[in-house]
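Researcher: Predict the fold of Lysozyme inhibitor LprI-like N-terminal domain-containing protein.
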Amino acid sequence: MYLSPLFLNTPSRFATLLILSTAPLASPAEAQADLPAAQCSRAATPTEGAICANQELRALDTELAEAYHHALSATNKDSNERQMLIAEQRQWLTMRDACKVNVGCLAAAYRERLAQLRPGAILEISPLALPQFLAVLPDAVIQLTSRSPSCIFCTDQDRRTFAEVATHLPAQVAIARVEWTPWEFFPEEVQPLFIDGSGWGIPMIAVIHKGKVVKNISGYQNDTAALFKAIASSLGIRYPL
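Model: Structure tokens for Lysozyme inhibitor LprI-like N-terminal domain-containing protein follow.
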């Protein structure tokens, strides 16, 4: 078990976050030194220990380290863009550490930062993680679906259409997919996404604007332009497809 680069005060295979928050900036190449990642047994704070002890948080931690590395690699050394990225990451680390050992708070913090670093990327979240996700992201588009055979209208085409639309939405809109099996056992955490309680048993896309569910889009999705238009109009945005 290895501690993610988020925790290290030594260089690792990714541009480490704590180095960037406490030391002069090195290039991505310089940050990828040959020193091995520290083991979780070396976690120095309760927050780091909580992340190491939770499989989902460890996965989010690694995913965020990769996303941050790629974002950093896309900037020029000494550029304003890079300095802003580092400043944002420092601010995020402070917010993350304020969660202490609260797993729900930590997971939400990671997902929020991932949404910022990878606009257009679909975050795969569990029903249990949905309340925390909604608590920190006021504008979001969420696909409810399943790979369960009992959901006959849940298709790969739905997923492809949703993924294509996601790439055209503004960066401030978080995009997520919530799946569960078996499909007929709807988790109570997803119920607040249904405006009027209708549509049970049919895959659905919920549009959240300013913290409120403003539209449910149900049924088979195979028209990218039509789906984008429905989502964009609900969010009050004008964004060319």
